[in-house]
């Protein structure tokens, strides 16, 4: 259940009987022809749909993450590693004070991995709590479905082109060769933009929505199963 649809009394009632909560973690960054908020939109939506039948509170997605390599693209925002870890740590502290002890971070951006290490460190200082860091798009069953659909899937490509991340200006289906991602990791922002051009790392820009929904349904089920069995 979205926290936006709850008041503080509802949270107080919830934690009397259950200590689970979900925190989506996203990013605001270029996604070629898709929304700048693609990572945050997808992380929050998969969290909400997974948690809804269970009644577990889902907090708003943290919309900013680590995206220094995209800083030559207008609208892309990055935090520093220390800042992201401080923000996530402060949020976890607040959730603990509210009574939550089992927290799932549903992550939508690969660059946010330092927050996973932070979660481990936070549990060292809070041994009565548990945090799980869940990269929803590369969980085993979900990633297997992506690969079964099209092995060439990347940042800004078809695999992130859902009806809720697509814009009226999103290009029709096109194909792009994969960039050299090893080289990309060595480049400063303006050179990275020159290499990437539109921002898509490679692959088709769009596939059928029926194929995307097959992936999405598995992602929701896989996330829900994790919440149920914890």
UniProtKB/TrEMBL annotation:
Native source organism of the sequence: Limobrevibacterium gyesilva
GO biological process: riboflavin biosynthetic process
InterPro entries xref list: Creatininase-like_sf, Creatininase/forma_Hydrolase
A GO molecular-function annotation: metal ion binding
Keywords, ordered alphabetically: Hydrolase, Metal-binding, Zinc
Pfam families: Creatininase (PF02633)
Cofactors required: Zn(2+)
Name the UniProt record assigns to this protein: Creatininase family protein
Entry superkingdom: Bacteria
Assigned protein family: Belongs to the creatininase superfamily.
């Amino acid at each position: 259940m979205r926290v936006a649809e709850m008041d503080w009394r509802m949270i107080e009632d919830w934690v009397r009987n259950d200590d689970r909560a979900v925190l989506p973690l996203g990013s605001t960054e270029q996604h070629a022809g898709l929304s700048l908020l693609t990572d945050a939109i997808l992380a929050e939506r998969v969290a909400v749909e997974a948690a809804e039948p269970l009644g577990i509170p889902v907090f708003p997605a943290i919309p900013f993450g680590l995206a220094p390599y995209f800083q030559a693209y207008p609208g892309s925002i990055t935090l520093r590693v220390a800042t992201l870890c401080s923000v996530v740590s402060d949020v976890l502290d607040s959730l603990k004070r509210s009574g939550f002890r089992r927290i799932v971070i549903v992550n939508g951006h690969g660059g946010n991995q330092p927050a996973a290490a932070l979660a481990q460190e936070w549990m060292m200082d809070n041994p009565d709590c548990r945090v799980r860091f869940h990269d929803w798009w590369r969980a085993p069953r979900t990633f297997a479905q992506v690969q079964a659909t099209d092995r060439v899937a990347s940042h800004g490509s078809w695999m992130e082109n859902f009806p809720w991340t697509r814009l009226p200006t999103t290009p029709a289906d096109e194909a792009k060769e994969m960039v050299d991602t090893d080289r990309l990791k060595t480049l400063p922002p303006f050179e990275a933009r020159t290499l990437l051009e539109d921002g898509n790392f490679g692959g088709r820009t769009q596939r059928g929505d029926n194929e995307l929904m097959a992936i999405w349904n598995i992602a929701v089920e896989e996330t829900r199963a994790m919440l149920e069995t914890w």
